[in-house]
Specification:
With about 180 residues, this protein is of the alpha+beta class. It has helices spanning about 1-20, 40, 70-75; strands at about 20-25, 25, 30, 35-40, 45, 55, 65, 80, 90-95, 100-105, 110, 120-130, 130-140, 150-155, 160-165, 170-175. The chain folds into 2 domains: about 1-95, no CATH class; about 100-175, SH3 type barrels (Roll). Helix content is about 20%, strand content about 40%.
């Protein structure tokens, strides 16, 4: 009887903690604004626990990935309710870097005066992971200076790729 009472109490407290958890959603673009990636950087609606660090941020101008398991555990430990999509395995986190001089172009949009890559330009993208290096051509969706994150698009699909500008006409993604 005591055993069933303990099981029931554990179940009650587990369900009660879940019932009072704050629901959050994953941000569409995750940017670390300081030396650590926080719950507020990752989730919309993190509220009072938004400043809680969950991992070191990548160096300025670089990109890193976080596993969904890490995010789910961090959210749960902070009392946040988040169920990851079944097809999501990891998320990318960028840390925007440096200051860039800007000028307003004739068309009214924003343009970097020191851009190494211009919007619409075909770019050589290098992907590096342990034991493999792949290179492909992609189209820039925005201007970017060396060391800054940039969004690119593969010519054969609508997939958007976050990378870092490494040189004029070149960008890199690393695992």
């Amino acid at each position: 009887m005591l055993r069933w009472l303990c099981v029931a109490a554990c179940l009650y407290f587990t369900l009660a903690a879940t019932a009072f958890a704050d629901p959050v959603t994953l941000r569409a673009r995750i940017e670390a604004s300081g030396p650590a990636i926080t719950l507020g950087d990752v989730f919309d609606g993190a509220g009072a626990v938004g400043n809680r660090a969950i991992a070191p941020a990548p160096p300025v101008g670089q990109v890193t990935t976080l596993s969904v398991q890490l995010l789910a555990a961090a959210a749960s430990a902070a009392g946040l309710e988040w169920t990851p999509p079944s097809d999501l395995r990891q998320v990318r986190v960028v840390r925007p870097g440096g200051m860039a001089a800007t000028i307003a172009p004739q068309g009214g949009g924003r343009q970097l005066s020191d851009a190494a890559i211009r919007r619409g330009q075909m770019v050589s993208l290098v992907y590096q992971a342990p034991g493999i290096t792949l290179t492909t051509r992609v189209r820039a969706l925005e201007d970017g200076a060396v060391g800054q994150p940039i969004r690119l698009q593969a010519a054969s699909s609508t997939q958007v790729i976050d990378a870092v500008v490494t040189a004029p006409g070149a960008a890199a993604v690393s695992q």
